[in-house]
Amino acid sequence: MVHPEEADLAPHKLKFRSGKVIDLQCENNGPKRLKFRKGRSTDENANNKGDIGRRSFRRRKEDVQEKKDMQGLLNHVIEETASKLVETRKSRVKALVGAFESVISLQESKAPS
Fold it and tell me: In this structure, what is the dihedral angle of CA atoms 67, 68, 71, 77, given to the nearest 10 degrees?
């Protein structure tokens, strides 16, 4: 179907100049507002939004504190074992290797529990 307006327009060849860029933008050149989706909740009570944030923050803080405590204990075990082994062994490297082996065996024994 040909519209009467298009009937008198004959096809013609378009010519483009190199190096000229035509930028077609919408009339609104202002900054765009970003829209973010709400995060998913891992807790069972999705209705209590305020409590969820507090609980998860406390859990994370407790987890971080537990990791720090565990690292401190492991460092203490390594230092004690290394100092004991240095007395019996002449090489510090051998003492450190023995200390790390004892820590690894402690971690492996705690893992299945």
Answer: -120
